[in-house]
Amino acid sequence: MVALSLAPYAAHESTSLGRRHPEPPPSMRGQFQRDRDRIIHCAAFRRLEYKTQVFINHEGDLYRTRLTHSLEVAQIARGSARALNLNEDLTEAIALAHDLGHTPFGHAGQDALNRVMKSFGGFEHNLQSLRVVDELEEKYADFDGLNLCFETREGILKHCSKDVAKTLGKLGERFLRGKQPSLEAQLTNLADEIAYNNHDIDDGLRAGLIKMEQLKELPIFGEAYEEVLHIHPSLSLRRTVHEVIRRMIHRLVTDLVETSLAHIGEIMPKDCDAVRDHPVPLIGFSPNMRNNNLALKRFLHAHLYRHHRVRELTEDAQRVVSDLFEAYQGSPDKLPLDTRDKLMKTKDKSKSARIIADYIAGMTDRYAYSEHARIYAHHHA
Questions:
Q1: How far apart are CA 55 and CA 356, in angstroms?
Q2: What's the predicted TM-score (pTM) here?
Q3: Contacts (Cβ under 8 Å, ≥6 apart) of 333
């Protein structure tokens, strides 16, 4: 069950806004624990193992995937939640579910799906994660989706356009009224940033796409590097990288916890609703750390995500996703039976396109490649 020392401003199960479909309470675990367990057992979570983070999955076994990334986010978020006396189970559930709607091939796949879905409402992986847990998982007899608590769903939906927010009822209200999510949701959002920035450095160095010399120019990396060099002057490169990255993560997390505690101390929100009503997030970095973090993000965008090798893979991935969408739209018989059945039940073009996008978004990298090869085999014969 939940730790007894939860702060008053944490999300408490006793005041949860509940599930979309009423269910008897769990007997040997808390409500948020049940959410976390359902996420871990769902098919979309398992598929994250074969979805790209930055590097296409089959490029090498040592690179991060969406699954290992989600576990890393959960570890950083849960540890920070404990330090802040927040609800650890809720924090972990949000962290494990935050990328469930990601397409194959990471952001490249998302951009391609968004392009082909432009006339049908577009595609956004964050909203797709909510669709996965609300509708697309098909496991339970009494409802579609995983029927998660409001607080978990609130944390999954990090951003949302006002038009979409209007269709989401209570869940969309905060985007229309300029309110905040729970502290657990705010915390997981920044834990995600800490995880991917630092681990993309690790993967980028491993792939030889970025160099130590470039990174040393960044204060956040340079300071940690000097410290490691001073204590361990003859350490191998691989271990040096690991020692630098763990120090960077430690500094970011420490700053996040200390700054957030100071913000909370100034406001002293009496409960989770007071957190939601506050005009700005209470979880955040100090101005200095925020600048350091921003410099790191900019560096990765310029030198890693736009590196010609990553861009070549990106273009290839986008072609695969666009081709698949076009093929399924033109010949629905190429789809599996259950997806075809869903298409048969609607005459609405937007709904049909969404069904196809849902199917493609659920693919792993390697399945998308093999489907593309199967459908377009005659083009290459």
A1: 25
A2: 0.93
A3: 340
